[in-house]
Amino acid sequence: MYTLTGGSITSHVGGRDEADFYGHYAKAIEERFPGRWIGKVVAQALPREDVRRFHDYGIRIYHPNFEVWDRRLFELYCPGKERYIGRDEWHRRILDSTEIFGARNVIPNFVAGVEMAEPFGFSTVREAIDSTTEGLRFFMSHGVVPRFTTWCPEPTTPLGKADPNGAPLEYHIRLLETYRATLEEYGLTSPPSARCWPGRAGAPCAAATRARWRARCWSASVPWRPTRRARRSSSPSTRSGRAGRCPAPPCWASARSRGTGPSPATTPCWRPASRWGSPCCAPGWPP
């Protein structure tokens, strides 16, 4: 998987607008290495015609990041996006792009915790979570699953100087709880990751991961040193009952058999099968 990003182009660079500028890199990659990787682009929320050009160039995952849900904070923290496009239009374009990429492959990002940044942000965890949940429900109700990155205050920026510690731990715990609950409410799963992407790149990714497991651990010549949790466990399947060797490698099952997607491509289950006392993974894993 590769990612194309570099900031917004509001006019032209080298005679190309944003869709053509980033798209011609994807075109070159796809022509030289056809189908080898999944192409992603982090770009503006562009009009439908421009988004279609991304897809035509070979991009398969689109990240039109909305940064923060609250309208007031969006206007404060994203003045360029507000001035050139506007919050409501940005959201509308995100939904429009699902007609081209499919809802599963449109993955807008938001910055977790910045809605509590002083002096403008929410003063309580509850207010911040309620606001962000509203955004999650809006997008997930249309089949779009946002992802999030954690706000890390930069000490020389205005927000970093005003709030060097960032959002409290409780916020992040509540956000994870809410994110999971909202996924379950709408019957969705986490968006495609850089590890494996069901479909075109699923099987090669699975094979590569199996090879890494063998190289790192699953070998008769390499002893397994159980984790502290495993040593405490009363279950013989998670202790050193495997002759002191590595635990069982991850279960390899198709997305279709797990009920997590329509693709029959092989994808990894990242928890050792021995943890569950069965030859396959616990239901619903990976999340």
Descriptive account of the structure:
By secondary structure, the protein is of the alpha/beta class. The chain has 2 domains: 2-185, Aldolase class I (TIM Barrel), CATH 3.20.20.70; 201-206 and 246-287, no CATH class. The protein is built from 11 helices and 7 strands. It has helices spanning 18-32, 48-57, 71-77, 79-84, 87-101, 125-140, 158-162, 169-185, 202-216, 228-232, 255-258; strands at residues 2-4, 39-42, 59-63, 109-112, 147-150, 250-254, 266-272. It has a 3-stranded parallel beta sheet with strand order 1-2-3. Strands 4-5 form a two-stranded parallel sheet. A two-stranded antiparallel sheet has the order 6-7. Helix 1 runs parallel beside helix 2 (48-57), helix 2 (48-57) crosses helix 5 (87-101) and helix 6 packs parallel to helix 8. The relative contact order is 0.08. Mean pLDDT is 77; it is low at 194-287.
Layout of SSEs?
Layout: E1 2-4, H1 18-32, E2 39-42, H2 48-57, E3 59-63, H3 71-77, H4 79-84, H5 87-101, E4 109-112, H6 125-140, E5 147-150, H7 158-162, H8 169-185, H9 202-216, H10 228-232, E6 250-254, H11 255-258, E7 266-272
Parallel strand pairs: 1-2, 2-3, 4-5
Antiparallel strand pairs: 6-7
Mean pLDDT: 77
Helix content: 40-55%
Low-confidence stretches: 194-287
Largest sheet geometry: 3 strands, parallel
Contiguous helical run count: 11
Structural class: alpha/beta
Order of helices and strands: EHEHEHHHEHEHHHHEHE
Strand order of the largest sheet: 1-2-3
CATH fold title of the largest domain: TIM Barrel
Query: Outline, from the CA principal axes?
Result: globular
Look at the structure and give the CATH class of the largest domain: Alpha Beta
Strand percentage: 5-15%
How many domains comprise the coordinates?
A: 2
The CATH superfamily title of the largest domain: Aldolase class I
How many strands in all? Answer: 7
Distance between the termini: 20 Å
Which architecture of the largest domain does the CATH hierarchy give at level 2?
A: Alpha-Beta Barrel
Give the C-alpha Rg: 22 Å
